[in-house]
């Protein structure tokens, strides 16, 4: 293809779109890392909603963050975004989740190479389409995204780099230690014990365990660690907007059973909250955004998934190292939303066994 803006500088200008939910965006980071690893050193802009923009600005693989005002922005908002894309003179558009509005936007902006999954009628606006059939859930979402990034590089005539490995959100040296010290000061916690973060909410985006089941999980993990003569971990509860009442219920339920759970103090925005998760020795949650933040940080995770075909543990696998992942879902034959069929004692056993092999948190990288 003929590149408009790369001709003089040799650095292609790429626009990557992942403008849906938080977890989906975090699973795009391996693809972004792949693009930036190209020898051509492309300039990567990301079009994201205002909600995920603070994290996009933290991403080491993104050079510029553009805000998508969304479907309800009106004619003026759409016109302003289109003007901005035209002014940027992008060489290529990579849409990781295709919608007609974004497809049309890229076409109207005159971006010469426009690549997206071959799904729905939105693909008509793209001149490169990759058949993936994601709904079959045969691969992790982040791998589907990574394959699209590799396809884009090939279309640009660029060498595809060796696939990047976790962490896909590498933090500067000392960041994790600083976050642990900060939380220890705020909550009076011992830094020599393992810290288990539990995020029981889902933001309404996924089927999840009930609060009672999460309480039972905590109690079962405590009991199994005690049987193995291991120190009890420190439990830290995290919550999203509007989940305060649920967290209070869970804390009270645990306190009734003589287990103290601490609430992560309020943070200064989503990016500050995300950095706090680096302090966890294990992050436990349903298939939701914070779980995928922890995965991107390569923190150990334990995720609880529904049995729905489009939401399997494989499809929505966290992008941390394999040794850092635990996943639980209903047994074969269970209903799509039947999270009560997950064997909590067995899950606690696997979590406790995982923790038994941990060094003290002071030596955990």
Describe this structure in words.
The protein has about 375 residues and is an alpha/beta fold. It folds into two domains: about 5-155, Glycogen Phosphorylase B (Rossmann fold, 3-Layer(aba) Sandwich), CATH 3.40.50; about 175-365, 3-Layer(aba) Sandwich (Rossmann fold). The chain is about 35% helix and about 15% strand. It contains 13 helices and twelve strands. The protein has helices at about 5-10, 20-25, 30-35, 55, 75-90, 100-110, 140-155, 175-185, 210-225, 245-255, 270-275, 290-295, 345-355; strands at about 15, 45-50, 65, 90-95, 115, 130, 195-200, 235, 260-265, 280-285, 300-305, 325-330. It has a six-stranded parallel β-sheet with strand order 3-2-1-4-5-6, sandwiched between helices. A six-stranded parallel β-sheet has the order 9-8-7-10-11-12, with helices on both faces. Strand 7, helix 9 (about 210-225) and strand 8 (about 235) form a beta-alpha-beta unit. Helix 9 crosses helix 13 (about 345-355). The radius of gyration is 22 Å and the shape is elongated. The protein starts with 5 loop residues before the first helix and ends in a 9-residue tail after the last helix. Mean pLDDT is about 90; it is low at about 1-10 and about 360-365.
